[in-house]
Amino acid sequence: MKNLTSSTQIVEAIQASGLKNGIVCLHSSLKSFGFLQGGADAILQAFIENGCTLVVPTFTYDCEVSTPSYRRIIQNGSDYSESFDSETAVAYDQNSPMISREMGAIPAWLLEMKARARGRHPLNSFAALGPLAEELIGAQSPLNVYGTLKAIYAHKSAAYLVLAGVNLTSATPIHFAEERAGRRLFRRWAKGIGMTLEVEVGSCSDGFNNLAPYVKNIETSIQVGQSVWKIYPFRTFIDTVARAIVQNPTVTHCADPKCIRCNDSVRGGPFL
Questions:
Q1: Which of 6, 39, 90, 173 has its CA 20 to 30 A from that of 262?
Q2: DSSP code per residue over 225-243
Q3: Which helix (DSSP H) or strand (DSSP E) does residue 16 occupy?
Q4: HSE (CB half, 13 Å, CA atoms) of 70?
C-alpha cells in the first residue's frame, strides 16, 4: 500500500538510532506517518517494548481562567485584556484522559493507557509511560512546569528529544532552555478540582525554528516510513539552545514584532 508505515519500521528506527532503553521526549504528528499499521498504539508499543520511557506533552488549555486583578504581574506576556470564563472552564483532573486537541493523537492515546503517569500541572502537564514514568512525572508541579524536563536533564540514563514529523515550534524543551538561559517563566491561572491555581507557563514558540542552525550539528535526521524524525541528545540540546539564547536573546522571537509574549520573554520575563 502506498504511504504505508509499518510497526517494524518504527522498531528498526528506535534500535538503529540508539534510543533503546533510553528516555525519549517525543513530540509527534501521527499524520506524518501516512497510513500506519496499528495507529498510535503501534508507536507507543514500539518504544515500550524496547525499554524506553516515553514522555509526551498533554496540555489542557480549557482549564485556564482569568488572572485575578490583584495578581496582574508586570512583563508577564499579557495585557490582561483577554478574559477566560471561570464558569465554563474545565477543572483539571490528572487521572482523566482530558487533553487539548492540538496535542495530537499519540499523546491522547497514551493517556488512555492504565500504566501511564501524568503531571499535576493543570495547563501544561506531561505524561509518561515506561520504567521511569513515575519518577520523571513526579517532578512536575503547578509552579515547576518543566520539572519533568529538569528530571530528564539530570538523569543518569541516556535521554533524547525526538521530533517525529514536527519542527522546532513543537519542541517544548526549548521553553526549559529559556529558563536555563535565565528567563523567568510567565504566570497564569487555572482551574483545578476544588481550587484555582497560579501556574508557570512558557512563552510563544512560533519563532523557535530560528534555532535550527544552532542545533543542526547535534541533529540526527532519519526517515521512518513516511515520517521524518529529527533526534537530539537531550542534555546537549538544552545546553546548546540555552547558550544560543544567552548570546542572541531575540533568536526566539516570532515574526510579529508586537508579540507581547515574545517581547516580555526577551526582556527576561515577569517581575515576580
A1: 90
A2: TTEEEEEEEHHHHHHHHHH
A3: helix 7-16
A4: 1
Which string of DSSP letters, residue by residue, matches 175-188?
HHHHHHTTPPPEEE
Please write the tens of the pLDDT for every residue from 33-79: 988 889 999 999 999 999 999 999 999 999 999 988 889 999 999 98
Q: Is the whole-model pTM more than 0.90?
A: yes
258: its cell numbers: 508586537
Separation of alpha carbons 101 and 105, rounded Å:
8
User: What is the rounded distance in angstroms from the CA atom of residue 148 to the CA atom of residue 120?
Assistant: 11
Type of residue found at 216 = K
Residue 22: partners with Cβ closer than 8 Å, 6 or more residues away: 52, 53, 157, 158, 159, 160
pLDDT (tens digit, 9 = 90+) per residue, 148-189?
999 999 999 999 999 999 999 999 999 999 999 999 999 999
Residues ≥6 apart with Cβ < 8 Å to 115:
129, 133
Nearest alpha carbon to residue 110 among 26, 198, 172: 26
Closest alpha carbon to 116 in 105, 104, 130: 130
Strand pairing of 53-57 and 23-28?
parallel
Torsion of CA 180, 119, 203, 154, to 10 degrees: 10
What cell does 95 get?
487521572
